[in-house]
Amino acid sequence: MPKPDLEGAYALNSMDDTKRLYADWAGTYDQDFAEKTDFQLPDLVADAYASLGGSGPVLDFGCGTGLVGEKLAALGVSPVDGADLSQEMLAIAGRKACYRDLVSGNVLDGYQMPGAPYAGIVSSGTFTNGHVGPEAIDVLLTLAAPGALFVLSINGVHFDKAGFGAYFDARTDQVSDLKLPVVRLYGPNATGEHKDDTGYLARFRAAYTKGYSI
Ligand SMILES: C[S@@+](CC[C@H](N)C(=O)[O-])C[C@H]1O[C@@H](n2cnc3c(N)ncnc32)[C@H](O)[C@@H]1O
């Protein structure tokens, strides 16, 4: 049984274990993980999206308990839809009343999102060890309007291990204006083994298709 904490999450290697871990973690994730570790990514992703001029409709992929949605709402970005594997995490997000549609499922099976195509797609903490690799971006691109703004956090170790560099190199026809600033995942109050971990705040645009605009 995977332990509902960061070590357990990084060690995940099956869809069943991922569902079990997040079912167990959902009720305590915000307080016992995000607050205690001073988790910065949800705010960094939302702030970057808004400061780059991102607008709604936006999809928060791997929205979990809704920390990105809360911040986007505070920044005046709406409407925001969410998608996540875990129904228990989505139930917490739903209570925060900052999402329009919430859809559950494995990204690699594709999502039927009524709100697509999106003007933007954001994600915090889901492109990480034991979770989702670059192939998920192919699915997200199918949900994006031409020119849509993406802001996705990607764990630094996972970026190398899962081949995100090669992925982006092979997608220059679909991904434009890629920037990969490095950020710290946790704030100054973090403690423990991962307190100094870093990642990328990958931001790019879905390439324009002639004749479309957003
Ligand atoms: C570390 S949590 C991040 C949640 C939230 N975005 C945040 O920043 O707090 C990772 C989320 O990814 C979701 N997830 C993991 N694998 C997934 C998959 N294959 N498809 C969709 N969601 C997935 C989990 O259910 C979990 O809610």
Task: Describe this entry's structure for a reader.
The radius of gyration is 16 Å and the shape is globular. Helix 4 packs parallel to helix 5. It is built from nine helices and eight strands. The termini are far apart. It has 214 residues and is an alpha/beta fold. It has a single domain (39-206), classed as 3-Layer(aba) Sandwich (Rossmann fold), CATH 3.40.50. S-adenosylmethionine (SAM) binds next to helix 2, helix 4, helix 5 and strand 4.
In short:
This protein has 214 residues and is an alpha/beta fold. It is built from nine helices and eight strands. Strands 1, 2, 3, 4, 5, 6, 7 and 8 form an eight-stranded mixed β-sheet that branches.
Provide tags for this entry:
214 residues; alpha/beta; Rossmann fold; eight-stranded mixed β-sheet; 9 helices; 24% strand; globular; disordered C terminus; binds S-adenosylmethionine
